[in-house]
Amino acid sequence: MSATAASLRRKIATAGDLESVVRTMKAMAASSIGQYENAVRALDDYDRTVQLGLLACFRQPLPTTLRPRKHANDETIGAVVFGSDQGLVGQFNDHLGDFVVETLAKLPGRKVVWSVGERIQVRLAGSDLDVGVQFPLPNSIGAITTLVGQVLQEVENRRAAGEIGQVYLFHNRPRSGAIYEPVSQRLLPLDDAWQKEISARSWPSRNLPEIMPGGEQTLFAFVREYLFVSLFRACAESLASENASRLTAMQRAEKNIDELLENLDSDFHRLRQSAIDEELFDVVSGFEAYGR
Question: Looking at the predicted structure, is the pLDDT value of residue 34 above 50?
């Protein structure tokens, strides 16, 4: 009996320690969600400014150097996929991986995937896609800028070498009423359809903009910022979704641990009460035998 009680005590202590770890991870995930969601909201005004700048530039003829270039491998698609480096995120990488495979399967040509996060790379490695460079996932808002610079450099090098034509972004985005949803965006090329989409927007005031001399350099600067904002937003939304998924997983784990502790406590008290009953029975039996 004592050995069984000792075993239950160890299980209760272990479950209590695990619950403390889970609560800590919950707090960290909740804090991180707010951090990344604030970063996404902070991008809204900047993104609007960049797109207004592009709108102003498109009032002039588009420089020939910005027009899509034809290469032998224009049919090759490069895909940047933001996943996770760490586990305990439920089906975060599985759902995104399935979405990437299904979406790219509908597009013609060869596909090369650049993964951001070790877990999503492992998930995509089992598909028919050509998995290329893997980038480490940032662990803070400040580190996203460095990652975006590395990704843009890789994309530019591949496009300059004529190895890819189109570039797509894939990531999980926070969604109201759900944890997240996988989304995609065509990042490059910046073709006539993209220009028409920007140009179709209206200027927010009656004071129409005027581009000073050096308009081509201004346009290229806005294009760089447009690409930067697109990648930064995708990374921040992915990190917010990852932590939301981790928070949900920790909430389920905490509930399961609470139920386990409740069952263990019940078993321990029942065992303890049984031992007390046995001892009382022995005392009563001894007393009755003594009385005879």
Answer: yes
Question: What is d(CA 180, CA 126) in angstroms, rounded to the nearest whole number?
Answer: 23
Q: Is 17 exposed, middle or buried (0-12, 13-18, 19+ CB in 10 A)?
A: exposed
- The Cα–Cα gap between 61 and 269 comes to 82
Spatial contact of 173 and 37, defined as CB atoms under 8 Å apart? no
Residue 150: phi and psi, rounded to 5, are: -65, -40
Could you tell me what percent of the chain has a pLDDT over 70?
86
Collapsed DSSP state (helix, strand, coil) of residue 210: coil
DSSP secondary structure letters along 147-182: HHHHHHHHHHHHHHTTS-SEEEEEEEEEETTEEEEE
Whether 73 and 163 have beta carbons less than 8 Å apart is answered as yes
Cα angle: 115, vertex 118, 121; to 5 degrees:
45
Residue 185 backbone dihedrals phi, psi, to 5 degrees? -150, 135
Per the omega criterion (within 30 degrees of 0), is the bond before 204 cis? no
Q: What would the mean pLDDT of 45-61 be, rounded to a whole number?
A: 84
Q: 155-176: per-residue pLDDT in tens? A: 999 988 888 889 999 999 988 7
Q: Give dist(CA 159, CA 164) in Å, integer.
A: 5
Cα-Cα end-to-end distance for the chain: 31
Instruction: Reduce the DSSP state of residue 115 to 3 states and report it.
Output: strand
**Contacts for 211 with CB less than 8 Å, ≥ 6 apart:** 56, 57, 59, 60, 218
Tokens describing residue 291: 């009385």
Q: What's the pTM?
A: 0.79
Residue 282 identity (one-letter amino acid): D
DSSP conformational letter for 66: G
The answer to whether 53 and 208 are in contact (CB under 8 A) is no
Burial of 140 (0-12, 13-18, 19+ CB in 10 A): exposed
